[in-house]
């Protein structure tokens, strides 16, 4: 192999590593909120085993102003769930904020007996599930007990924790459902219900903390 080809190969290898989940790069979203307000104050917390807890936004909570966008909090969000799948992204405006999507399941969508009968995948910021024969749960229960969620880490510690999450993990995530906007008019708004599906049904979560249990 010529020296030129070796150099091209080396550049591609480094780029692939830099944008991989194990890269030490710091997401732009790790920038703290402006002023003296904490970068990500915790919302009310869900009890273990309960469905996701969505709570009102305090009147005193300002928008989170990051380097790449302003995040308007829409609701507090706390979830105790199982990771059904994860997918990492490095291309697109959404990836500037959210490098990772997690497909999460709660209540009966955490059970091995249920998940063993489902084929779960993610692509293009979507979450898909398939089965053979009869579904393991009523379809409306699958829809309201699982979701694809776009994770925006609030700081480096949260970004590091997110990089360590894998399918099958049980996690607790506390943060805020947000709408992201930029000065040129681009916006990305979170769903505010667990009962929807299709376009616009994903949650956009500004993550204050994520822990594996």
Walk me through what this model shows.
This protein has 213 residues and is of the alpha+beta class. The longest helix is centred in the N-terminal third of the chain and has 16 residues. The radius of gyration is 18 Å and the shape is globular. The N and C termini lie far apart (48 Å).
What letter string, H or E per element, gives the SSE order? HEEEHEHEEHEHEEE
Question: Would you report the number of β strands?
Answer: 10
Quickly count the domains.
Answer: 1
What class do helices, strands and sheet pairing give? alpha+beta
Keywords:
5-stranded mixed beta barrel, 34% strand, 5 helices, 213 residues, 18% helix, alpha+beta, single chain, two-stranded antiparallel sheet, 10 strands
Short précis:
By secondary structure, this protein is an alpha+beta fold. It is 18% helix and 34% strand.
Helices and strands in order:
Blueprint: H1 3-18, E1 53-55, E2 64-65, E3 70-88, H2 93-97, E4 100-105, H3 112-115, E5 119-123, E6 126-130, H4 139-144, E7 146-153, H5 156-163, E8 170-181, E9 187-189, E10 203-212
Parallel strand pairs: 7-10
Antiparallel strand pairs: 1-3, 2-3, 3-4, 3-8, 4-7, 5-6, 8-9, 8-10
């Amino acid at each position: 192999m010529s020296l030129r080809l070796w150099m091209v190969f080396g550049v591609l290898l480094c780029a692939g590593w830099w944008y991989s989940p194990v890269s030490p790069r710091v997401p732009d979203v790790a920038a703290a909120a402006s002023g003296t307000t904490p970068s990500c104050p915790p919302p009310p917390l869900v009890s273990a085993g309960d469905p996701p807890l969505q709570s009102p936004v305090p009147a005193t909570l300002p928008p989170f102003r990051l380097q790449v966008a302003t995040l308007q909090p829409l609701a507090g969000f706390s979830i105790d769930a199982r990771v059904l799948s994860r997918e990492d992204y490095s291309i697109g405006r959404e990836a500037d904020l959210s490098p990772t999507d997690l497909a999460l399941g709660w209540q009966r969508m955490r059970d091995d007996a249920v998940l063993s009968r489902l084929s779960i995948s993610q692509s293009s910021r979507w979450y898909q599930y398939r089965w053979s024969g009869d579904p393991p749960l009523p379809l409306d229960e699958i829809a309201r007990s699982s979701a694809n969620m776009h994770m925006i880490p609030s700081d480096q510690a949260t970004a590091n924790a997110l990089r360590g999450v894998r399918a099958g993990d049980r996690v607790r995530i506390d943060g805020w459902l947000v709408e992201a906007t930029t000065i040129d008019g681009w916006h990305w708004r979170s769903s505010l219900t667990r009962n929807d599906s299709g376009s616009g049904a994903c949650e956009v979560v500004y993550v204050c903390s994520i822990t594996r249990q």
